[in-house]
Amino acid sequence: MLSSTGRSYQGCPTQREAAYSLDDPIFVFRIHATLWRPRRSARMTVAKRSPALERGHRALRKGRVSAPHHVYLVTAVTRDRQRYFDDFAVGCAAAGSFESTDTLGDCRLWAWVLMPDHAHWLLQLGSSEKLAGIVNRLKSASARRANSVLGREGPFWARGFHDRGLRHDEDIASVARYIVANPWRAGLVNRVADWPFWNAAWL
């Protein structure tokens, strides 16, 4: 559950029809049950893993600081940047695990968006757990669900993750709006509301 007033993500999302502006302080939505269909046909792309990439993963883990109650913008990519989430059912399966209390523990998930080959999570840590543990659970839970739909086994996400700690003067709602607008900026949809795989506490 994101907040006492926010919408809890349950299973496969419905399409959202919204009055939306990047400058609006909140989102105003009307939910309806028409299913989203992708604008582009599903496809998989495979990128070769390079030694530089592996060194980059090690560098991300080295010296990482995890401050209690701090807010982090986290990005994880699929293994070999495969576009698993072009498949609507796979996206539903993975996204369904993001807001589970078993996954989040005492962490708060302010916003998230699932792109064809990566995910962004806006997380606020609680008092007890470190960022790496939360992200590992997010990746593990979503991988199990996605692999089940795909009928495959083995690694689903690439190793490691990228994180950026928000400054104290940064507005969380503004960062959340930026995150959920990623599909629109990437040209995947004409409106933010047309993308099915996202949520924010300001609903």
Descriptive account of the structure:
By secondary structure, the chain is of the alpha+beta class. It is 28% helix and 18% strand. Strands 6-3-5-4-7 form a five-stranded antiparallel beta sheet, sandwiched between helices. Strands 1-2 form a two-stranded antiparallel ribbon. The longest helix has 20 residues, at 131-150. The radius of gyration is 16 Å and the shape is globular. The two termini are 12 Å apart.
Keywords summarizing the entry:
two-stranded antiparallel sheet, 203 residues, disordered N terminus, alpha+beta, 7 strands, single chain
The shape is globular
Strand content: 15-25%
Main structural class: alpha+beta
- Please list the strands of the largest sheet in the order they lie side by side: 6-3-5-4-7
- Spans of at least 5 consecutive residues whose pLDDT stays below 50 are 1-11, 13-49, 59-63
How helix-rich are the residues, as a percent range? Answer: 25-40%
- Rounded mean pLDDT score: 78
Characterize the biggest β-sheet.
Answer: 5 strands, antiparallel
Helical segment tally?
Answer: 6
**Rounded Rg:** 16 Å
Distance between the termini: 12 Å
Number of strands: 7
What string, H for helix and E for strand, traces the elements in order?
EEHEHHEEHEHHE
Give the gist of this structure.
By secondary structure, the chain is of the alpha+beta class. It has six helices and seven strands; from the N terminus they run E-E-H-E-H-H-E-E-H-E-H-H-E.
Please specify the SSE layout and strand pairing:
Layout: E1 16-19, E2 28-31, H1 51-61, E3 71-77, H2 88-95, H3 101-104, E4 108-114, E5 118-124, H4 131-150, E6 162-165, H5 172-180, H6 182-185, E7 198-200
Antiparallel strand pairs: 1-2, 3-5, 3-6, 4-5, 4-7
Helix pairs in contact: 2-4
